[in-house]
Amino acid sequence: MRREGSPWTGLWAVFFKEMADHLSGLRMRILEGLILLSALAAVYTGTQTLRQTVGEDPYLYLKLLTTAQDPLPSFVGFLSFFVPLAAIALAFDAVNGEYARGTLSRVLSQPIYRDALLFGKFLAGLGTMGVLLLALLLLVLGLGLFTLGVPPGGEEVARILFFLLATLAYAGVWLAVALLFSVLFRQPATAALAAIGVWLFFAIFFPILTELVAGALLLQADPLDPESQLRQANLALWISRLSPNTLYAEALTAILNPAVRSLGPILITQLEGAVLGTPLPLFQSLLLIWPQLTGLFALAVLLFTLAYVTFQRQEVRA
């Protein structure tokens, strides 16, 4: 049957309804509390360390986000851990929850196509993560201003905004993963376990496998041929970049540390004329992380497309 009208009719109704449910739900309150407490602890330890260097460091607020002190990790370290869990918690029952409550066929009997329903749920999850991350960053910057007594510079604010953009792209990947499993599995518990399993694989097991592969590749390289060793090292690096965690970590490394000039092996000849330790301009740092940002966006789009195609082919009247 040929459908009539725009496939996006009802998109914003779904978006605002889902976002209101997310922001007022108990699940989101618990996640917000956990992330808030962790962020406050990280900022407190960071300010204690940076108070000694106020006025000497031009990138004080970037270090506030990245400074760790045992046993607590940095604010960025906390976000790297919590963002995937929060994204999975928002989307693991997005579609199968409608099946379980018997509301999917009733929703689709309204002038709302499946396209608008799925895209609206994805955008609502992304919007909720954006609101949460923006509130956290403003809180961290406010606490930093209160405790350090100096305002952030213009380039620091711009770098923090791009850090927020990279974190949203990373959250989009895990939202799309959870949304895909919510379409594939009818039981929300199964979808949640599958999504958390994928996250655990990339967080724990993939780095181990990458190290094993890198070790095997380096053994195959000729120890007397630097080009052969460089080629194998680059190959191992590209394998590690199959993980969204690696792409996100590299993007944060370059955007929050202006002294980083490369995200891979560097030859001595490439350092000729370079003043080591000199910070890169923001534009050069963005050129450095452009492939990583593009990779995260592309992965999120690919996973959402898989969920979209699968949902379009499902029987929804059951």
Summarize the structure in words.
The protein has 318 residues and is mostly helical. 73% of the residues lie in helices and 0% in strands. The chain has 12 helices and no strands. 32% of the residues are buried. The mean pLDDT is 83.
TL;DR?
The protein has 318 residues and is mainly α. The chain has helices at 11-24, 26-50, 60-66, 75-91, 96-101, 104-108, 114-148, 154-184, 188-220, 226-240, 244-256, 282-312.
Which structural traits does this protein have?
12 helices; mainly alpha; 0% strand; 318 residues
How far apart lie the N and C ends? Answer: 19 Å
Which outline best applies?
globular
Number of strands: 0
Structural class: mainly alpha
| Poorly predicted runs of 5 or more residues | none
Nearest-angstrom radius of gyration?
A: 22 Å
Share of residues in helices: over 70%
- Helix and strand sequence: HHHHHHHHHHHH
Tally of helical segments: 12
Mean pLDDT across the residues is 83
Chart the SSEs and their pairings.
Blueprint: H1 11-24, H2 26-50, H3 60-66, H4 75-91, H5 96-101, H6 104-108, H7 114-148, H8 154-184, H9 188-220, H10 226-240, H11 244-256, H12 282-312
